Structures are given as C-alpha cells and as structure tokens.
Amino acid sequence: MTLKHLHLILQAEVKTKLTEKELEEFLFSLVREIDMKVLILPQLKFSHQKAWTGMIGIITSHITFHYWTIEKYLQLDIYSCKEFDIENAVKFIKDFWKTNNEKIIFLKRNHDEEFRLRKIFPEFIL
After folding, report:
1. CA 20 to 30 Å from 98, out of 7, 23, 66, 92?
2. Domain 6-125's class?
3. How many CB atoms within 10 Å of residue 36?
C-alpha cells in the first residue's frame, strides 16, 4: 500500500441532538462507511462548555469531532494514510447529522508533493 496523507475537514450546523451512545455508534458507522478498521476504540468526553469531543483511532490514522450541543455546531476531521471515498464520507456525515451551512475542504499532503486543497462546497473544486 502506498501511503497517502489525506485530510477531510468539515464544519456544519446540525439539526440533531445526539446521546453518547449515538455518537459512539456514529464513529463505528463512519469507520465502516469509509472501509477502514478500528485501531483504538471510541473515546468520548462531555466538557463544561456543553460540547462533546470524540475520537476513534483507525488503522490508517484517526477520526475526530467536536460537537457543541447548545450551538448545534460540528467540526469533524478524517485523517488517513489510505485512500477513501470522499463523496461517500461527506454524504454519510451530512445525512447522519442532518447538517446545513457546511464548509468542507479536502487536503492532500502526500510526502514529496505540493499540498493540494479542494474546497467542497457544494461540489469538489480543484
């Protein structure tokens, strides 16, 4: 496998209020959706700012999110050294969280290459 360095970054307003169990299931489901394998089980913490932080280690790196329950706001990152279906990942995240006003970028930062950035709003633009 040739190593890649791929980073999907998503910010959005969300229309759903989720429990800790649902957030954990989201992480497992997203890992399956992008055809990865779990390395570190989900870790979830609720902060004094009424926000959830979640992460799951995948064999090829990690997925993290911060979800502010009052503001109904999500920031999410997928970082992977293996290719994954970006469009499918974005669709899954948007459907699960019932998002709107998304800001999405995809960064390729492969070794010995110039960084390549794609803004995904509403479509991929090079």
Report:
1. 7
2. alpha beta
3. 19
CA–CA dist 120, 54 (Å, integer): 23
Distance CA(94)–CA(45), nearest Å, equals 22
User: What are 77-116's pLDDT values in tens digits?
Assistant: 999 999 899 999 999 999 999 999 999 998 887 666 665 6
Please report which helix (H) or strand (E) contains residue 18, including its range: none
Q: How far apart are CA 25 and CA 43, in angstroms?
A: 12
pLDDT in tens, 5-40: 889 999 999 998 899 999 999 999 999 999 999 999
List the chain domain ranges.
Answer: 6-125
Q: What is the pTM of this model?
A: 0.86
Percent of the chain whose predicted confidence (pLDDT) is above 70: 84
Rounded Cα–Cα distance for residues 37 and 105 (Å): 23
Token pair for residue 52? 């959830």
CA distances from 14 to 38, 71, 90, 96, 125 (A): 26, 9, 14, 9, 24
